Each structure stands twice: as structure tokens, then as C-alpha cells.
Amino acid sequence: MVEDYGVSDATGLAALVASGQVSPTELLDDALRAVERLNPALNAVVLMQEGVARKAIAQGLPQGPFLGVPFLLKDLGAEAVDFPSHNGSRLLANTRYDQDSSIFKRMQATGVVTFGRTTSPEGGIGTATESAVYGAPTRNPWNLDHTPGGSSGGAGAAVAAGIVAFAHGSDGGGSVRIPASCCGLFGFKPTRARLPDGPYAGEGWAGMAIDGFLTRSVRDTAIMLDACEGADLGAPYCAPPLGAGHAAAISRPPRRLRVAVCETTFTGEAIHPDCRDAVLQTAKLLESLGHHVEMARPRADVTGMMRAWTDLVGVGTALAVTSALKGRPLSADLVEAVGRGAVAYAATLPPTRYLQAVGEIHAFGRQMAAFFEPEDGAGHDILLSATLAEPPAKVGRFAHVTEDYVAYRTGPNGIFAYSPFCAVFNASGQPAASLPLAQSAIGLPIGLHLAAPFGRDEELIALCAEIERAAPWAHRRPPAPQ
């Protein structure tokens, strides 16, 4: 076994391969042993393709920055010929693709050794990963009674447990940042359209969804973003161009920034005391680094955005489900309760509602952009909050067992009450990140959330790297499996 496997980040493992100390085959063997040892308790890794991985090594891997490093795809999106997908759903189980997606091609070009997929909730909906197609919930390696988050929950669990050093995810309402918060990892959502969607989609959820990565270090995310960024052929729009890139940005501290700190939700409700304390401690850290810190929160219409987000995703879910049914009845053995509820809810909306909701999302994005604009010299560069309003939820709390889709999203005990921060920046399109800077009183990870103006990905990730150097988190590991 490779001594540093399960502890090192992906950049560190790639350096071992480059120096000849280990081979890609040895790393893959370690990854497969980790799956065998850890996955029965976690239920995070599915649809294993060991033969595909070994064939890729034998044929010669691309000479990229992660040559030989084991890698996993989320079981939602990242379409690839050699990697069939359930897409988190019994309705779409064992879906095969006739061509590789652009994001998959770019990830593969880094030299990673992809050998399977990670679990996702049906339709990518929710902050937990408990899809019926996998037979059991996915669990958090920090505490098996708690969720690793969603919708990239399997990716978060696999990276936190040490099965892989990093993994693919995607984020349409926090689905990278929520698992990062729950699992003690770094998760970064780029500016809208920074990464390619094609050819299977023109855009995800009206532009709110984007791919991303669950990593142990800022540098792994930065390098992978640089490898994958840029519009693909025929993209409907693209993000503002980068400067020198994410990896160059993290090599030096950012300028001193004006940081707005929100210790409540963006609508003023109290959050869990452990999360609030973590926000205030992070504010002190930023102040000690020379950044200007002040209490402030945006006045944008978050409640209206959440209604529009719910309608957009409901219509998108209905379209996906009805297309996949191909005339079959919508039954409980094919689609879980939340999905069936989304289909029913979408049928109640007027045909003009989708475009109306898109307009509301765009208006909200302008409201959020205004918060970061200078106003008599008082504009903000960064907005700091918690990633979630409380520590990781118990398994079962957000299972897809209700057909009341709207209450599941926006009810008093729903998804948005638990995760009131993340979707804001999917709607606005702004870059945002979750950093693993704190733990709850019972030792569960707590993520801290940073967001920046549209297109300012490099400045945000440079700040994340500065924080990582000042308050390292690599030493924090889940307890050994029992």
C-alpha cells in the first residue's frame, strides 16, 4: 500500500507518480482496497468500472497534472461512454451514452484514473443522498448516523473517508458546497458558465447548475478548474475570461478585501449557535489577516428567489421524468415521492411560469450584484456566512418520502431552512466556496461560506488559499472506521 494514500491530496499523489515512487496501478489498487474496506458502511461508490481503469493505465494515460491519481464521477451528469449511470434514479438505471461529455473529456485529460461513480439523490434534489436505486442511504464518515450532504453526497463521503483524494461533483443549489460542509472538505462553485455543459445540455436549471469538485485542498480545485474551464462548442454563453488562472492566483495572497459578515441567514433568522460561532471566529481570522471586516447582509429578495428556484427545478424535474418514462405510468417503483410530487406540482403551474421564474432569478442576480458594488466607498468584495444553518443533519431527515415537493423545499423544516445560503449564488451566478474551518460541539464538520462578485473566481480562490495557509485543515480526519 502507498503510505500517503488516504491522507495526501491529489497533487501530492501525482507528485509521487511523477517521481516514480509509486505507479498508477499501485494507486488504483489502494483505491479499490479502500472501497472494499469502507464502502459497505458508507454506500458512496457505485457502478465500479475496474476494467476500464486498468485498460486506461495499460494504454497510457494523458500527461496531465493528475497523472495516475484515482478519480470518481458523480452519478449524475459527466456523461461518458465507458461509465454508465443510474443518475440517482431507478427510472434511469444503467443509462448508457453514445459520446463523452465535454467536462468528462477535460477531466480525463488531466491524467486521472476514473474507476466508478458516486451516489446522488434522485434528480439531484436535496441536501442528503438517500436514493432508492442504491438500496440504502449514503452515510457520513464522520458519523454514520448523519448525512454527507447532497446532491454530491457520495463524492463527499468518498473523499472524506480516503477512498479517493478528490472527486467530481456538481452544484445546482449547493450540491458541491453542502457535502463539503458536511464532510470537512473544500468545495468551490465557479461563476456561471465557467465550465462546459455540453453536448447533453445547453445549460443546467436555467444556468444555475454547474460542475465542480470535492477536494482536500484548495490547490487541487484550482488545478482542476484550470484544466476544465472554458465554454464548449456551441455553448449559449460563457463566463468572463480569467486572468492568469486559478492555480496562479493561489500562489500569492489577494489584495486586502472588504468582507461583509452575516451571522444569521440572509433574511435575518438565527442559525445554530455552533455555526454562528464559527462565522464570528472566521471573521476574526480574516481581520487578523488584514482584511476589513464589518457586519452586513444583502437586502435581495431571497424568499422570492427561493420560490422561483423551486418552480424552475420543479419544471425541470417534470421534464426529465416524463421524458424518461416514455409513456409509462408515473409509479412509485420508478420515481420516488419527491420526484412524483415535483411532476404533479409542475402540472399546476401556468405555461408562462417558467419564463417568469427565469426573469425573477435574473432580477435577483442583479440585486445580489448590487450588494458588492461600491456605494459611497462602502462596496463589499466578499460575503462571509455559514454554509449551512446547522451541522450535518441526521440520515432520514431529508429522505424523498413526501410528495409535497414545495414543502420539502420551502417549508419550515425544509431544504431551504437547513441550507439558506448556497442556492443564493446559484441564482446569482456568482462564485462561492465552502471551507472546512470548524467543527460542532459533537465533532461534526462545519463549513464556512465565502462568495464574491460575478467573474471574480481568481480573487475568491486566492482568499481561500490564504485562509488555508493561516488555518490549515488537512490534519482533521474522520475517526477510523469501526
From TrEMBL:
<dbReference type="InterPro" id="IPR020556">
    <property type="entry name" value="Amidase_CS"/>
</dbReference>
<dbReference type="InterPro" id="IPR023631">
    <property type="entry name" value="Amidase_dom"/>
</dbReference>
<dbReference type="Pfam" id="PF01425">
    <property type="entry name" value="Amidase"/>
</dbReference>
<feature type="domain" description="Amidase">
    <location>
        <begin position="26"/>
        <end position="460"/>
    </location>
</feature>
<dbReference type="GO" id="GO:0016787">
    <property type="term" value="F:hydrolase activity"/>
</dbReference>
<dbReference type="InterPro" id="IPR000120">
    <property type="entry name" value="Amidase"/>
</dbReference>
<keyword id="KW-0378">Hydrolase</keyword>
<comment type="similarity">
    <text>Belongs to the amidase family.</text>
</comment>
<protein>
    <submittedName>
        <fullName>6-aminohexanoate-cyclic-dimer hydrolase</fullName>
    </submittedName>
</protein>
<dbReference type="InterPro" id="IPR036928">
    <property type="entry name" value="AS_sf"/>
</dbReference>
